[in-house]
């Protein structure tokens, strides 16, 4: 099962909601999702992981790609509401020092 996503816009900037799983198989799709986010030209973006059940190391790499592209565009990326298993992976990979991780 591959990732499903939804992008919504609010005053603070776009929010990318990721659902199901984010794995190596989603690499090409995620690149197009990054393009859609970057086209919004906002200074802040949120990646909502509240509906993401699983992420592998390739998923971590995809988040880093998003972060790198956002930095080049002078935009910030934060991660919101990761489920416990995904949050553990983010902390183990020290992503809490690379991203603001919000629990809302």
Explain what you see:
The protein is an alpha/beta fold and 104 residues long. It has one domain (4-102): Transcription Regulator spoIIAA, CATH 3.30.750. 36% of the residues lie in helices and 36% in strands. The chain is built from three helices and five strands. It has helices at residues 27-38, 57-72, 84-92; strands spanning 4-10, 13-22, 44-55, 76-80, 100-102. It has a five-stranded mixed beta sheet with strand order 1-2-3-4-5. Strand 4, helix 3 (84-92) and strand 5 form a beta-alpha-beta unit. Helix 1 (27-38) packs parallel to helix 2.
Task: Present the secondary structure layout.
Blueprint lengths: L3 E7 L2 E10 L4 H12 L5 E12 L1 H16 L3 E5 L3 H9 L7 E3 L2
Parallel strand pairs: 2-3, 3-4, 4-5
Antiparallel strand pairs: 1-2
Number of domains: 1
CATH class categorisation = Alpha Beta
Q: How widely separated are the two ends? A: 27 Å
What's the assembly state of these chains? single chain
Q: Find the structural class using helix and strand composition.
A: alpha/beta
CATH architectural group: 2-Layer Sandwich
CATH topology title = Transcription Regulator spoIIAA
Principal-axis shape equals: globular
Estimate the helix proportion, in percent: 25-40%
- Strand order, biggest sheet? 1-2-3-4-5
Summarize the main sheet: 5 strands, mixed
- By CATH, the superfamily comes out as STAS domain
Our Rg estimate from Cα atoms comes to: 12 Å
Unreliable parts:
none
How many helix segments? 3
Please tell me the overall pLDDT.
95
Order of helices and strands: EEHEHEHE
User: What is the number of beta strands?
Assistant: 5
What share of the residues does DSSP label as strand, in percent? 35-45%
